[in-house]
Amino acid sequence: MAETYASDFGTILLFLIGAAIFVMIGLFTSKVIRPDRPNTEKLSTYESGEEPIGNAWIQFNPRFYVVALIFIIFDVELAFLFPWATVFGRRELIEATDGVWGWFALIEMFIFIGILVLGLAYAWAKGHLDWIKPEPVVPKSRSKIPVDMYQRVNERQYGPGKAEPETTEPRA
């Protein structure tokens, strides 16, 4: 019996070692064959399509937190629905109580979902779900270089009368 356990653990160990070697070979191969051409665009921070402007230590819009809390509420609701469905949907309990158990479970879940819907309606009525994109605040710096010099560089880079490159994507 001891040989069986040792051989079973040995098999698991061989699979783990094989998996680690497989991953290492894949990572090494990708490092060798991939192009390595970093530029400012690739090295810039990208988060949710917003350009990183200014200092990172700023106050965020409270709507981020409200939307996150609403998401967590409904995520927790789903976590409660699965055990509810397995426990209250047991056929032997429903048959033993002549269907009262099933009706009790159904009414209980409607009350639970109703409370969550009331919370969502409250957040909606208060305007917490309305998303208004704030205008980015461009930091003002004191530079010895005149503003028209920046404009000339932009015109040379992007064309006359344009401050930034044209994109084919619609702006939100």
UniProtKB/TrEMBL annotation:
Its EC number is 7.1.1.-. It is found in: Cell membrane; Membrane. The chain crosses the membrane at residues 12-33, 64-88, 100-125. It is a multi-pass membrane protein. Keywords: Cell membrane, Membrane, NAD, Quinone, Translocase, Transmembrane, Transmembrane helix, Transport. NDH-1 shuttles electrons from NADH, via FMN and iron-sulfur (Fe-S) centers, to quinones in the respiratory chain. The immediate electron acceptor for the enzyme in this species is believed to be a menaquinone. Couples the redox reaction to proton translocation (for every two electrons transferred, four hydrogen ions are translocated across the cytoplasmic membrane), and thus conserves the redox energy in a proton gradient. This is NADH-quinone oxidoreductase subunit A. The lineage of its organism: Bacteria, Pseudomonadati, Bacteroidota, Cytophagia, Cytophagales.
